[in-house]
C-alpha cells in the first residue's frame, strides 16, 4: 500500500495546524488510500540546524529516524502554518537537514492559518525551497483558513462548508505524482 508521511510543522505551544495533520491521517486511512503516519516536529524536538545529516559524525536517533521515514515514504504532505508570511523555522530546520532523501519525492503542501487567507503567502516561498532541494512539488494546494472553525482538536471537520472537491483534487494530484514517479522508475529498471 502507498505510504504517505505527513509532516506536522508547527512546534508552537497550543498549535492549531496539527489538527490538519490529524485530519489527513484519518482521511487517508479511513478511505483506504494509503498507510499514513505523522512526522510531528514538536515530538522530534530537533536542535537548531548545525550540519546536514550526511556530514554529521554522530547523528541523533531522532534525525536518523526522520530521514528513514522520509526516504521510505512514497509521498509527503507538509502541513505548514504561515508565520509572518513565511514557513516556520522548524520546517526549514528539517528540510536543510536532509539532502538526497528529498530527491524526486512527491510533496504536497497544505497551508494553514487562523485568518481568512489560509496561508496564501507561505506557499510561494515553500514551493521555491522544495524545488531547490529537488522534490517533485504537487501542483495543487489545500489552504486551510480559519483553522479552528474548520477542524476540532482531533482533526474532525466541523461546520458546513468543507471544501470536499478541493480536498479530493489535492489528494488525486499527489497520487498522480506518486504514480508518475513509480512508472519512471520502472522504465529505468526495465
Ligand atoms: C509568529 C506567528 C506569526 C504569524 N503570522 C501569520 C501570518 O503571516 N498570516 C496568517 O494568516 N497567520 C499568521 N499567524 C497565525 C497562524 O495562522 C495561527 O497561529 C495558526 O493557528 C497556524 O499556526 P499554529 O499551527 O502554530 O497554530 C501567525 C502566528 C504566529 C505564532
- In what order do the strands lie side by side in the largest sheet? 2-1-3-4-5
For the secondary structure, the number of strands is 5
Principal-axes shape call: globular
CA-based gyration radius:
16 Å
- Give a list of the ligands: flavin mononucleotide
Measured distance between first and last alpha carbons: 22 Å
The percent range for helix content is 40-55%
The ordered string of helix (H) and strand (E) elements is: EHEHHEHEHEHH
Low-confidence residue ranges: none
Tally of helical segments: 7
**What does the largest sheet look like?**
5 strands, parallel
If you average the pLDDT, what whole number results? 96
Approximately what portion of the residues adopt beta-strand conformation? 15-25%
Class derived from helix and strand content:
alpha/beta
Describe this structure in words.
By secondary structure, the protein is of the alpha/beta class. The chain has 7 helices and 5 strands; from the N terminus they run βαβααβαβαβαα. Strands 2-1-3-4-5 form a 5-stranded parallel beta sheet, with helices on both faces. The longest helix is centred in the C-terminal third of the chain and has 26 residues, at 164-189. The radius of gyration is 16 Å and the shape is globular. The chain binds flavin mononucleotide. Flavin mononucleotide binds next to loops.
Amino acid at each position: 500500500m502507498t505510504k504517505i508521511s505527513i509532516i506536522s510543522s508547527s512546534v508552537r505551544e497550543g498549535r492549531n495546524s496539527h489538527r490538519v495533520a490529524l485530519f489527513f491521517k484519518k482521511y487517508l486511512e479511513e478511505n483506504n488510500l494509503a498507510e499514513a503516519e505523522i512526522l510531528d516536529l514538536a515530538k522530534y524536538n530537533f536542535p537548531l540546524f548545525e550540519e546536514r545529516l550526511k556530514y554529521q559524525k554522530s547523528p541523533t536517533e531522532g534525525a536518523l529516524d526522520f530521514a528513514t521515514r522520509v526516504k521510505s515514504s512514497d509521498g509527503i504532505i507538509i502541513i505548514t502554518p504561515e508565520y509572518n508570511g513565511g514557513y516556520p523555522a522548524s520546517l526549514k530546520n528539517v528540510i536543510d537537514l536532509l539532502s538526497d532523501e528529498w530527491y524526486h519525492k512527491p510533496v504536497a503542501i497544505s497551508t494553514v492559518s487562523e485568518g481568512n487567507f489560509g496561508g496564501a503567502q507561505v506557499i510561494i516561498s515553500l514551493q521555491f525551497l522544495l524545488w531547490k532541494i529537488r522534490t517533485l512539488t504537487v501542483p495543487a494546494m489545500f489552504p486551510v483558513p480559519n483553522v479552528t472553525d474548520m477542524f476540532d482538536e482531533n482533526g474532525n471537520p466541523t461546520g458546513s462548508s468543507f471544501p470536499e472537491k478541493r480536498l479530493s483534487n489535492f489528494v488525486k494530484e499527489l497520487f498522480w505524482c506518486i504514480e508518475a514517479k513509480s512508472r519512471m522508475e520502472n522504465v529505468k529498471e526495465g
